[in-house]
Amino acid sequence: DCPGKEGTGGKKRNLTLLRNKLYLGQRRRTEPVVESTTTAGDHGSLRRSQSDRTEYSQKLQEKMAPQAVSSTPATPLQEEEEEEEVRRRMMARRVKIIAELLQTEKDYISDLDLCIKEVIQPLRNLQIARFDVDGLFSNVELVHQLSAKLLSLLEEATTDVEPPMQIIGEVFLQIKGPLEDTYKIYCYHHDDAHTMLEYYEKDEELKQHLRDCVQSLK
């Protein structure tokens, strides 16, 4: 009811409204600045992230492809030494392969020797009418002879001959025809011999003879 008090209350309300307007106005002015600053910061972070990824990718490629990294070029002397080392290793490997070939052929001939002496010849000596020894073992004896010839030629080409001069390819070319003719017969009769062996194993008497031969081999 007091005019003085009412005027004072109106001033307070006006002051409050003025403060609110000033606060809202300040927010309008600062929000774009803050947004712009934040956006600029985001772009800056993005640029740094892309740069890091590019650097990491480059380092990864360098690790995966070390030959791409620049290095000091080899001198002619170094290149010659490296080539000589490669030739030396290849020659050493070739010598081992030839030695293994010779040893394998020797072992094969030894097995054929045992087969002929301890199996084929004793079965032939039995002279059993229903036992076809030649049909069962085909031309194994001819295979043995040809293998012995091959070994002899290989030894001739490698004994007391320097490794670079050991030309064994010519040996196989020389004996190519006889090898084909001999093993063609052996392979042709292989299935028939296998069927014949299965039939003989059903006959107890013949089966016992085969067991005796196997026991002599042991």
UniProtKB/TrEMBL annotation:
Ranges for domain DH: 93-218
Matches recorded under SUPFAM superfamilies: DBL homology domain (DH-domain)
GO cellular component annotations of the record: cytoplasm
Pfam families, alphabetized: RhoGEF
Biased composition (Basic and acidic residues): 49-62
Coiled-coil regions listed in the entry: none
InterPro entries named in the record: DBL_dom_sf, DH_dom, Dynamin-Rho_GEF
Renumbered residue ranges of the record's region Disordered: 28-85
GO molecular function: guanyl-nucleotide exchange factor activity
Database matches in Gene3D superfamilies: Dbl homology (DH) domain
PANTHER family for the chain: NUCLEAR FUSION PROTEIN FUS2, RHO GUANINE NUCLEOTIDE EXCHANGE FACTOR 38
Protein name: ARH38 factor
